[in-house]
Each structure stands twice: as structure tokens, then as C-alpha cells.
Here is the input.
Amino acid sequence: MALVARRHDRLVALATEIETAGGTALAITADITDRGQAQGAVARTVERFGRLDILVNNAGLMLLGPVVGANPDEWDRMIAINAQGLLYTTHAALPHLLKAAEDGPRQVADIVNISSIAGRVAWNGYGVYNMTKFGVNGFTEALRQEVTKRHVRVGVLEPGGVDTELASHNNADIRNQIIEPFVEQTEILAAKDIADAVAYMVTRPRHAAVSELWIMPTDQA
Here is the structure.
């Protein structure tokens, strides 16, 4: 498994966990919003493992707030990570995924783009974030139609509220006014729930694809 992110220390810690559990991990420090770094990360992965069978695009940033009075620099960051980074990484990986589907041992390759229910439902204050996630969903569906006959399965995973660092960059006012009311009204998914859903999508039989998967917390009461 190749792990690609900007935070080197976090990457090394995750790679160590995988190695301790008996797996093999490659930690690649890169910023996928830079097209050259995204291409380099894919190239290093293929060089290390010989092929690329599965691509999971999970980079995300959620900066909320109204359009009036907003900071456009935050829009740029969010669009770069949620949309451009996904596009750059997918473009770099796709030739290798097509090759894996053609002559690899699985005879199929997978792309899973982690989006959000915000890619289907809009809320006040989520406008630009909604735009990026609607874009992810549209791109995923178009790509699925483009490559599905070549045995590259493309799916989108749309979680409900998730307890990750996705929204941690919002200021206190936004957390109090928009995020906390949402958290109070719903159960929250853990990162493990996302990982389990991805595993479900990519371990299906060769001709069984999951093009769209919503995951929401169940009531445990």
C-alpha cells in the first residue's frame, strides 16, 4: 500500500502500523494539488510495487461559511484539494489502472473517490464545499462510463458526518454556528467506518461494481 499526503510524520506512523500488522507500506510525502507531485507519487508507487490496482482518493478539506463576506483564499484551497488534486492523481494513475485491469492478477482495477452526502444535498453555509463535492460526484460518474468496459470500476463513497480532521480548519464561529448544530442532530461516523466501506467496494467479485455507496450511522438504541 502506498500512502500519499503532505504530513510526513503522520505518514510514517501509519506506514509503521501497516508494517506491524504484517503489510507492506510506502510513505510518500507529496502535495497532490501540485500536478507534478501527484504524478511523481504515482510513479514512485508503480516503481515500488510494479503495478497499481486500486486508487482511493480521500483528500478533503471542508471550509464552511456564507458566500457574502467569505475569504476567497479558502475557496481556492478547498477547490484545489477537493477537485484539482483528485483530478491530477486520477489522471496520473489511470494508465496504470487500465494496464492492471488488462493483464494484472485481479483482471480488474478500482477507483474509489470519497465524496460526501454534501455531493447530493445542499445546505446553507456549505455552498462552495457543496460545489466541490457535486463536482466530485459528476466527475466520478462520467469517468465510470468512460472506463467501465475496460474493467476499471469507478465508484463514489458518500459518508454522512465523519469524525476526522476534515472540518478542523474552520474557525470557532463557523464550528459553533454550522458544524456543532449538525453534529448534535446526527450520529457521527468514525474513520474506520470509511475504511470498511472502501474495503467493501474494492473486494467485490470482478463483475460486481459499487458505483455509489452512501454510509450513514445506524441507530444503536
Notes: The mean pLDDT is 89. The helical segments are 8-20, 35-49, 72-103, 127-147, 172-185, 191-202.
